[in-house]
Amino acid sequence: MQVTEEDGGKLNAFAREPRMVVMEEGERRGPGSRRLLIAAAVLVPLLVLLAAVISH
To answer: Do 1 and 11 touch, CB atoms closer than 8 A?
Structure first.
């Protein structure tokens, strides 16, 4: 962590940010992201249905 001292003597800490990875156009994501998308597409409607059933 990088720490700087302000004029009043207060310390200010800055977190170290992770390195960014830039994807090239047309570059594929890993198979995990496809599984996550499918799981979300199934889970969200089920949660909406569950909320509708509970509310009645």
So the answer is: no
- In tens, the pLDDT along 30-50 reads 777 889 999 999 999 999 999
Q: Choose among 4, 25, 27: nearest CA to 14.
A: 4
Q: Among residues 9, 10, 11, 37, which one has the least CA distance to residue 1? A: 11
Q: Are 17 and 2 in contact (CB under 8 A)?
A: no
Sequence-ordered alpha helix ranges (H) in the chain: 31-55
- Sorted by sequence, the CB contacts under 8 Å of residue 11 that are 6+ apart come out as 3, 4, 5
Q: Name, in order, each residue with C-beta under 8 angstroms of 51's C-beta and a sequence gap of 6 or more.
A: none
